[in-house]
């Protein structure tokens, strides 16, 4: 699988959202990652569907909407019209198989996200029911955290599980991703790099995205 770079707009200048999204699009991003936080599932509030819709007007790239919220099923219909993929957390208070199926029924890619403390074996009952696996490489809730090195074995285990079952879902990593950690994650089996701070604070965003890839 090719390496995909998905800048996270959580790290952009919110006052210049349109310009920021357009800029990373021109700089060579593959996806735009949207971290939606509700202040309950994680201890932070980021933005909602209106903000994501506004971002969508400034790019033709796929929007990958990451719902770090307690009840993703309740808000799903707000994001399906504007997202290309929607990631829900295994730890959320929802019927996970039903919510994944709703995402797919809406013509979108269904992502399953897992927090650092969640064992990789927990995804086994859902294999074949999701299209993207998102492995959090920091504790979810805030951008700019350092990468957790002990997540690398989890990525390797996910790759082995995928290969053993002859599945082909991409493995996304989210949190503390920069050129160095992206290389480690790629070697472990991940191929979608969600990068916020490293892209939006780079002096040359095109060079940063190329280096991540």
Widest sheet, order of strands: 1-8-7-6-5-4-3-2
Order of helices and strands: EHEHEHEHEEHEHEHH
Give the beta-strand count: 8
CATH topology: TIM Barrel
Helix % is 25-40%
State the CATH architecture: Alpha-Beta Barrel
SSE class:
alpha/beta
Would you kindly provide a written description of the structure presented here, covering whatever features stand out?
This protein is α/β, with parallel strands linked by helices and 213 residues long. It has a single domain, classed as Aldolase class I (TIM Barrel, Alpha-Beta Barrel), CATH 3.20.20. It is built from eight helices and eight strands; from the N terminus they run βαβαβαβαββαβαβαα. The chain has an eight-stranded parallel β-sheet. The chain is globular. The chain starts with a strand and ends with a helix. 43% of the residues are buried. The mean pLDDT is 97.
Would you summarize the structure shown here?
The chain has 213 residues and is of the alpha/beta class. It has helices at residues 17-26, 49-56, 72-79, 96-105, 152-164, 179-188, 197-200, 205-212; strands spanning 4-7, 32-37, 63-68, 85-89, 109-114, 132-136, 171-174, 192-195.
Search tags:
about 210 residues, alpha/beta, TIM Barrel, eight-stranded parallel β-sheet, 8 helices, about 35% helix, about 20% strand, globular
What topology emerges from the helices and strands here?
Layout: E1 4-7, H1 17-26, E2 32-37, H2 49-56, E3 63-68, H3 72-79, E4 85-89, H4 96-105, E5 109-114, E6 132-136, H5 152-164, E7 171-174, H6 179-188, E8 192-195, H7 197-200, H8 205-212
């Amino acid at each position: 699988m090719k390496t995909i770079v998905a800048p996270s707009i959580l790290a952009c200048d919110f006052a210049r959202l349109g310009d920021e999204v357009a800029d990373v699009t021109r700089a060579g991003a593959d996806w735009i990652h949207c971290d939606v936080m509700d202040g309950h599932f994680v201890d932070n509030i980021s933005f909602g569907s209106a903000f994501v819709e506004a971002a969508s007007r400034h790019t033709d790239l796929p929007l990958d909407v990451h719902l770090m919220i307690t009840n993703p099923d309740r808000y799903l219909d707000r994001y399906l019209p504007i997202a290309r993929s929607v990631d829900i957390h295994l730890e959320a208070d929802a019927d996970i198989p039903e919510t994944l199926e709703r995402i797919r029924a809406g013509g979108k890619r269904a992502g399953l996200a897992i927090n650092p403390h969640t064992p990789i074996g927990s995804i086994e009952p859902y294999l074949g029911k999701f299209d993207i696996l998102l492995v959090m490489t920091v504790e979810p809730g805030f951008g700019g955290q350092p990468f957790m090195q002990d997540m690398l074995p989890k990525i390797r285990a996910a790759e082995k599980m995928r290969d053993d079952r002859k599945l082909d879902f991409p493995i996304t990593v989210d949190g503390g991703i920069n050129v160095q950690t992206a290389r480690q994650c790629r070697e472990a089996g991940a191929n979608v790099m969600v990068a916020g701070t490293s892209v939006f604070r780079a002096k040359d965003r095109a060079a940063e995205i190329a280096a991540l890839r």
